[in-house]
Amino acid sequence: MGKIFCLMGKSASGKDTIYNQLLKSEELNLHNVILYTTRPIRSGEKDGETYFFCSDEKACQLEAAGKVIEMRAYDTMHGVWKYFTADDGQIDLASDNFYLMIGTLEAYEKIRDYFGAEQVLPIYIHVDDGLRLARALERERAQAEPKYAELCRRFLADEEDFSREKRDRLGISQMFENECLEETVQRILQYMREHR
Question: Which CATH superfamily is domain 3-194 in?
Answer without folding.
Answer: P-loop containing nucleotide triphosphate hydrolases (3.40.50.300)
